[in-house]
Amino acid sequence: MMKTLNRTGSNTAWLRLLAMSLALALLAAACGGGDDEGDDDEGVDTEETADAADGDAATESSDPSEGDTESDSDGDAVLAEPDEPASGSDAATTLRAGMIGDEASLNPYTYITGFPGWNLLMMQYDSLMQIDGDGIPQPWLAETVDVSDDGLTYSLTLAEGVTFNDGETLDASDVAFTVDYFLNNSQSRFSRALAGVTGAEATGDLTVDITLEAANPSFPLSTLSDVPIIPEHVWSEVTDPENHQFDSVTNVGSGPYVLTDYAPDQSYTMEANPDYFRGAPAVDELVLVQFADDTGAQAAIRSGEVDVIFDGVSPEQVPLLDAQDPIDIVQGPEFSTDLLYYDASKAPFDDVAVRQAMSLAMDRQDIVDTVFLGAATPGSAGWIHPDQVSFNPDVETTTDVEQANGLLEDAGYTDSDGDGIREADGEPMSYELITPSDNTLRLRTAELVSEMLAEIGIGAEVTSVESTTWEEAVWPGFDIANGRNYDLAMWGWSAPIQADASRVASLVHSDPSIGALNLTAFSNPEMDEVAQALTVEGDPDTRLELIGELQTLFAEQLPFVTLLYRDGAYAYNSEVYGEWEFIAGQGIVSKLSLLPAEARP
Amino acid sequence: MGRLDTRRIAQYLLVLVIAVTINFLLPRFMPGNPLALIAGVDVGLLTPEQRAEIVTAAGLDQSLLQQYVQYWGNLLTGDLGFSYRSSRPIIEMITERLPWTLLLTLASLAISALVGVTTGAISAWRRGKASDLTSLTTMISLESMPPFWLGMLLISGFAVTLGILPSFGAETAASGLTGWDRALDIAQHAVLPVATLSIVSTPAVYLTMRYSMLETLGEDYIRTARAKGASEARLLFRHVARNALAPVLTVLAIRLGFAFGGTVVIETVFSYPGLGRLTFEAVGGRDYPVMQAAFLVFTIAMLLANLAADLIYPVLDPRTRASR
What we know:
Mean pLDDT of chain A: 82
Structural class of chain A: alpha+beta
Radius of gyration of chain A: 24 Å
Helix content of chain B: over 70%
Structural class of chain B: mainly alpha
Oligomer: heterodimer
């Protein structure tokens, strides 16, 4: 018996979750690249391309060993709806969108960052499934997606009459070719997204079977909704895709737009594909103009030179932009995080009492109000966002300076010389708190954190350093085998890490092969056990229990301090175009937003 | 025309070698590595083999000396390599951006030379009078303005508030303009960046011209000319200004060299697609080959500007001609 994946039916709940995590993953992919620090100004995490922490996580979620991502839960409320839905003109002849940085020639092997690179790439290409506004994968190039009972075979039936924009038909052999090509030419991110796929076989003109090594419930989200289908008749002649000098305007895909011009560091021009299989796009011409930084992009939307900005705008810009007619703002929750990191393998941070005291000293609401002007959610000591279905309401996050001081006193950290700073083993508890210089919000957060730590007799001197220097201190060589060179640091992960509870293992597990992102050198046998159980457990109820337990442990052990989760805010000119679809983690400028309502899934 | 002797040429070559060496070393001493290009969660998941592959592909597994020798080899054969980020040939990336930077630098240099020399000459001529003091004060205040701040101020005023000039870019994207219409469009886009660059570079020219004029005015031959009854205008332009120009020329040559580097800030503020912006993005992305190539261009520009000054100086001032 085969079960069919679609919007109705019993699979909806877990699909929703998968979808959400994929959406977040893709969006995070958007944040990937870790390119220039220039863009990494104050903004929601989705736009922090420079933040090493904000990784290209789409590939990660596609790792079959990651397994199911929260297949429990009824799926509601995970991806919150935008606070303010977008509205305005529903068609446009020319739309100018501001983006930050260059994405080189936009083909699957050369685009640079996950965001906005992947979003732009997918304007020209289609994937087999497409996530909808709720982040759930829906049939797209594949009209039906059936999965075998053992979860190892996906049988797809393609939509009829889909053509590439050079007029050639897109059929099952192109799908099989795409899978083989990415697997055989591994320099693409999509090769990693397809890891765990053993092969793809065309079983008819429009039917194809994709087989996996191991069952992977997130496959529709992490792979089918991510990988662009490339035309066999073009790519079969490309032997060295990474260094192949594509003519930037000859990318051939089946997508709603065709790239017609690329001027490096200036713009991309895309024309609508009137024959698009889901219907002609609502915007005829898409001009993507490149800015060096977000200050330039925001000036340009205010002067009317661009109509929408890919990247989120910072909290202090929101009221300014919103007040200007005809600029409107779409806002919604996103799961990127701001965290206080410490090296928990070093004294005194190896003492749980110190970590607890530091968490108690944090007035998270104050940071949200002061630094983010309310555009964020205070962090839970248990790490999981309160809007997530797997949030454990028994975990309380409190601010109690008195209790924190009491904990430190009891643990023997006293201020013997009366200078306001406690001593640990005779040494004053004064540390450097490093933060990247190009992330204003994080810098301001660090300053508040420092003041709050001072109240419990811990000195934290905020040092703002160039962002690669900061990365090198916390995550030398991006390999935890190289150790860590910091005491205190501001850190953050992009949305997918927060969205997928299974990932906690990679953040806290003491075995480097599992805890590849354990940058705080945290080690606790009990947490190792629960976190690892979560990566293999398939039963939804058991998973929910484990996640709940993990949050309790998290709040008690504090592998790091979760300060807050940022919200996203995106600006557009409602007179030019207003039918924006907010997908948490992907912002509003994506393929879906430019299709007429009836063509959206 | 002045000529270069062997010693001079050797000096220039030595400076070039040192500059190239520094260009080579600097990026490698910066923190961070090409792995940052695939930064984030993904990096944590790479196998040691995959990491090694990336490092090898970037040639960073070789010894510093090997890399250095190879670097020179490539340079001498005109091969600047490929960008880590975009995989494009760097020479291509540079040649498509060079014209934009040249447009900004040359236009602003011409404006600052014209304005600086004229106002400097007039200022010195009217030394101590109200007009001299006013222009002196103005120029000194302008010189102390941070270029990025000035640029943002101009954007805010002329693009956002008044809406009469474009705030970014070198031309309107996808405008389809050709010929004179396109030239006009490009000119409009250049106004604010050129104005910013001109404003920040005029004071140096002005001050040099003014001091150089004052010095010349005190020379004996000026007194002689005046005594012979030369007209004020003839005196100012034929005798004083011409002789005072030599030091200004040096300043201009040096500014030309600096102007290339100075466009990094301006091209970032105005999102202008020139070499400065390329450098900015390359530094951010730890794109070593592009960084090196861009710095190399700046270095060569600097050396050429100096060379030009060396060659022209003797023409203006016969006393500096090398005796042979």
